[in-house]
Amino acid sequence: MTHHALDEMITDDLHIRDIENIILNGSIIRSEQDAKTLEIKYIVYGVSCDGFEAEVVAKIKNQLVIITVYLL
Which InterPro entries match (predicted)? Predict the structure, then answer.
């Protein structure tokens, strides 16, 4: 998980269980290719454990890397 994602979790009062819930029960709504690195990132839409809509942006680089998270 990036420092940016951790900062956003704090800002939006999200917890790791929320991120897990979004990834495990949500849906990939789109993928994008980074113009600089050419890596593919995935935007996952779901809900937090408290029922708030949110998105997780992640990429796979030997393992899942959470780039950012935010409430909608």
Answer: DUF4258 (IPR025354)
